[in-house]
Structure formats: structure tokens, C-alpha cells
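Example record

The entry below shows one chain as it appears in the dataset: sequence first, then C-alpha cells.
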Amino acid sequence: MSESAPAGKFPQVLCSRPEETAELGRALSGALYGGLLVLLSGDLGTGKTFLVKSIGDALGITDMRSPTFVIESVHLSPNVNFPIIHADLYRLDDPSGTVLQLEEYTRDGAAVLVEWGERWASPPARGRWNIDIRLGGGPGEECRLISMSGYGVTALGKLSDAYARLPDAIIAGGARSCP
């Protein structure tokens, strides 16, 4: 079976408090691997940077900030043997040059986390997670609905492992919903 064939979408995660989003970040951090591309999408202020920072915190990286003005930053974790690249495509009119560099980072074995990933016109068909964050309530609500999908055998398997580590309380569905 081809590495690019499998793709899977998981039930939404509902995070009604920042602590729950941090819990999601911890679960995802344990599933990152060198060569993974993570595309985060969502409106301004939905928590993309907070989720990436939560992943970094779980990996022992204490200086993750939004790279909006620097476009990308490189982080080394004491807990994994590959670099973590945190990038942001928000301010780029034409992100194609940056995208080529980010693809090269994944080929070189880095895990690359990209905010405003929806601006990447043709992302790789394998080795990728898509994470979409949406506000679930009215203006100013804390509730986030987070959709996750994986592309490629390894990416899908690792995302499935992370999803399995999530507490049942934040899996959307059943009686729980955003206020």
C-alpha cells in the first residue's frame, strides 16, 4: 500500500478551557516525529499558537512564541532527537518560497508546525496532520472545536495514537457541547 493512500479524519475534540487545549497539546507532542508536517488552520485568535506552545511545553521547549514576524523559528527539545520548526504563513502574500523551505526541513527530518496552514496551496499528500480550530460559541467564548486529520500511513497511525491518549471528556459528541 502506498504511503500517500491512507487519510483519516477523527471525531472533533471540544476544548472548553485552556487546560483542555494544553492536554491536547501534550497528547500530540508524544506523537510527533521527524519528517512530520502539521498544518494548523483557524481564524485569528482561535488558539493555534497556544496549541503549538502546549506541544512545545510538553517537549521541554520553553521559548515557543508566535513566529508571525520572523516567519519561522527552530527549536531543539531535550526530549526528542529532531528539531521542531514553528512557522507562520499569515503575513506572506506569496508563501511559495517559504513552503519550499519548510518541505526541505521535513525531508531533513524536522517536525514542522505551520500556523495559517490553509495558505499552503498544495501540501504533501503524506506525512501530514491537518488541525483546524474553530470557536464553538459566540464572540469571546473559550470553547474550541478542533478537527484533526492525518495523511499517510505513519502520520495517520501516530495521530491515532495521540487521539487514543485524549481523555474521553474532551472528545466532542454525546451530551457535551459548546455553551
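Notes for this example: Strands lie at 7-9, 13-15, 37-41, 72-75, 84-88, 111-115, 128-135, 144-151. Residues 1-5 have pLDDT under 50 and may be disordered.
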